[in-house]
Write a structure and sequence with these properties.
Blueprint: H1 4-29, H2 34-59, H3 61-71, H4 74-99, H5 102-108, H6 113-126, H7 129-145, H8 150-172, E1 173-174, E2 177-178, H9 181-206, H10 224-245, H11 247-255, H12 260-296, H13 300-336, H14 342-374, H15 379-403, H16 408-445
Antiparallel strand pairs: 1-2
Helix pairs in contact: 1-2, 1-8, 1-9, 1-12, 2-4, 2-6, 2-7, 2-10, 2-11, 2-12, 3-4, 3-7, 3-12, 4-7, 4-10, 5-6, 6-9, 7-9, 8-9, 10-15, 11-12, 12-13, 12-14, 13-14, 13-16, 14-16, 15-16
């Protein structure tokens, strides 16, 4: 606990600040109209899918840097960071192509053309920020791997109020300058992500905190073997994150069949769930570095204690925050999102118990995922997440929504069932790694 909390808390706060950008966009746009909120929800859903896959690709840098740092291999450490930047630029460029075709994609999968057009407006502005965000992720992975993530957190925290001011100004206008509406919200987020990327780069290259790494001494040229290795490891992480974290955003496409109140309620629940559970991603990232350090040092006791710490932190955090959400729920809906429509408020009130249950389950499944990444275990967790969320979760949710009176709520109930099963697997899988390393150490001593 003493080791994971100082490393995980700054990362957790940074992740929460990161998701606050889309949270702020949704809260501001909600004041325009329900149609604008629905369009931005679908736009952010597609943006999240693209972003999450890219984030997974670049996250492969973290365990590589952590292992190099533990081994004292400075040149190798610099190489992983540089190749991570190249991977971020490549993934970002491909992501822009997808985002600039948002309207066509949404119409193709059966979404309302008017709402799809609004979604395209948002992503037209937001697309340019994707490569900058992934470069920021690469820098954050480097900082985490060497055990100093705080600068990345402070930078992302500074980006939140900047996004609020820019977003409000660009959406609604300032003085004689007209507002840009939904496009302005997306453009503001791109400017903020560029700000974060540039600033974190300056800190790494010129700041005193990372001077001994001498990052400018490394070659900026791409190294195909290292780049391919990052792509190989990162592809599994990206698919797993996409299947896990992208599940609720994709669920929005199924929710749309249940009417405007269901879409608006899902949008609010999605933003709240993302804002709360993203905190767990900080500890998950910290667990990646800590697990890599322990594995490199053949310390099975550290792996065992790390698993226990993650379980305790996840339980306490999710239960406390769920209680806060329950107590303040009506105020959040009314004052933060500006929703006064009776139908949407009633739908959200009915959804609250399922939302809280999902928050707890999703927090607990997120915590050990980084642990497994730090041990190089990516394929089996990816397969289990796919089966748990997309076969069991979505399948049971679709059946409950279609063949029972639960309707829209059946989708969330199914999602909770699938996520709970994945949680049980992750902690069991962690136990298997602990046992394997312990037996290996014992055999070496014998």
């Amino acid at each position: 606990m003493g080791r994971i909390l100082p490393l995980g808390l700054p990362l957790a706060v940074g992740y929460m600040a990161q998701i606050s950008i889309s949270f702020t966009d949704a809260a501001l746009v909600a004041r325009s109209s329900s149609e604008a909120l629905a369009g931005v929800t679908l736009a952010v859903s597609l943006f999240s899918l693209v972003m999450l896959f890219g984030l997974g690709l670049v996250t492969a840098v973290a365990p590589k840097v952590a292992a190099s740092h533990q081994a004292g291999a400075a040149d190798e450490l610099r190489g992983w960071a540089v190749q991570g930047a190249w991977l971020a630029l490549l993934a970002g460029a491909l992501g822009i192509v997808v985002l600039l075709n948002t309207e066509h994609i949404l119409v193709l999968i059966g979404q309302n053309p008017g709402v799809a057009a609004i979604a395209q407006d948002y992503n037209n502005g937001a697309a340019a920020g994707l490569p900058f965000f992934l470069l920021y992720v690469d820098a954050r992975c480097l900082m985490t791997g060497v055990g100093r993530p705080k600068p990345a957190t402070w930078i992302m925290l500074a980006a939140v109020p900047l996004n609020l001011v820019l977003g409000y100004s660009m959406i609604f206008g300032v003085g004689r300058l007209p507002g840009l509406g939904v496009f302005g919200a997306g453009l503001a987020s791109s400017v903020v992500r560029m700000f974060a990327s540039v600033l974190v780069g300056v800190v790494l290259l010129r700041g005193r905190t990372f001077r001994e790494l001498d990052l400018r001494a490394g070659s900026p040229a791409p190294r195909p073997p290292m780049l391919l290795e990052l792509g190989r490891v990162g592809a599994w992480i990206g698919v797993r994150i996409l299947l896990g974290e992208g599940f609720l955003p994709v669920l929005a496409f199924f929710v749309a069949r249940h009417g405007a109140h269901a879409v608006a309620a899902h949008a609010v629940a999605l933003r709240l769930e993302s804002l709360i559970v993203v905190f767990a991603l900080g500890f998950s990232s910290a667990a990646t570095a800590a697990a890599a350090w322990a594995h490199e040092g053949k310390d099975w006791r550290a792996l065992r204690d790390l698993r226990t710490a993650l379980l305790l932190i996840g339980l306490v955090y999710s239960l406390v925050l769920s209680s806060v959400v329950a107590l303040c729920f009506h105020g959040i809906v009314r004052d933060v999102f500006g929703i006064h429509d009776r139908g949407t408020q009633t739908t959200l009130s009915s959804l609250l118990p399922l939302l809280i249950a999902y928050i707890v389950a999703d927090t607990l499944v997120t915590m050990p995922m980084g642990y497994l990444v730090g041990l190089g275990d990516t394929r089996m967790p990816t397969a289990v997440v796919a089966a748990g969320n997309w076969i069991l979760g979505l399948g049971s949710g679709a059946a409950l929504s279609e063949f029972t009176p639960l309707g829209f709520y059946g989708l969330w109930l199914g999602a909770g069932i699938g996520t709970t099963c994945v949680t049980a697997f992750c902690f069991a899988r962690a136990g298997k790694h602990i046992k394997t390393l312990r037996e290996s150490v014992v055999n070496q001593h014998d």
